[in-house]
Amino acid sequence: MIKAAKVFLGLGLVALAACNSNPETTRDTSTTGTIGISVDETLQPIIESQVNAFEGIYRYANINAQYKAEGKVVDDLLDDSTRIAIVPRKLTDKEQEIFKQRKITTRYTRIAIDAVALIVNNKNQDTLLTMNQLRDIFSGKLTNWKQINPESGLRDIALVFDNNNSSTARYMRDTLMAGQPLPPSASASNSHPALIDYVAKNENAIGVIGVNWISDRDDTTSVNFLNQIKVVGISAEDNPITTDSYFQPYQAYIAQGDYPLRRFWYIISTEGRAGLGTGFAAYVASDRGQRIILKSGLVPATMPVRIVGFNNRPSKFRQE
Hints:
Helices cover about 40% and strands about 20% of the residues. It has 13 helices and 12 strands.
């Protein structure tokens, strides 16, 4: 009886060890396990590609990405609903202080440089704007297209964002308006596709969108979106003399800093160890992950980019 008990005990330990050796039931590592991450919805197309590629390589890795407005993503990080957030900014001093009080270290991995694009209806002939004109539009000083071009057949400017709490809305407030509220005429759509659809159907509209939604020439969805609207060329000069002073959010112009509305993207981690989130961040910053960034039309943050010489006429999105 004692010998039999030892045999059963031994078999039980073997079975327990076998269960614990299954990557799906053990604590996550840099390449195995299941985690949830919170992602600014502006970068959804690219992060979906990154997750699919990562899970394709590491078959025991399962990353559940939730795509939300920037404000909600940061909230998820602050209330510990996630330990991995992907946003186009670093934490503010006030936000960082919360983690200091908890004795939690935040780690940043810069993964890309992108741009905020301005889009207009295909019937709109005014596709070149200066930064000063944009400031006046976003502050409510310019409210009609005729104030920009007296010969325009369009009427009141309809300013539309993807979401009032989005990173693009926050970025434009900080960049153009020193954090002041948007004008009462500004409105928000339900999603990026809805924003593009609104601009495509409304002659007077000007939309604000993350450029990666329209920059990937190999993505049929991106090409379809691009065919529905025009992309605005922007000049940082007060009184541009030629169209050579205007730049669209084309990859080379973002990389060289010619396009003025550019920003950095970060993976923020509060993991206290090398878990799956850390592994995913390392992958996105690696050569493989950065090539996905490059292909999407954005600028990789951790690998050199070869810029091929070309003129800077604002026609790179084929909107003639």
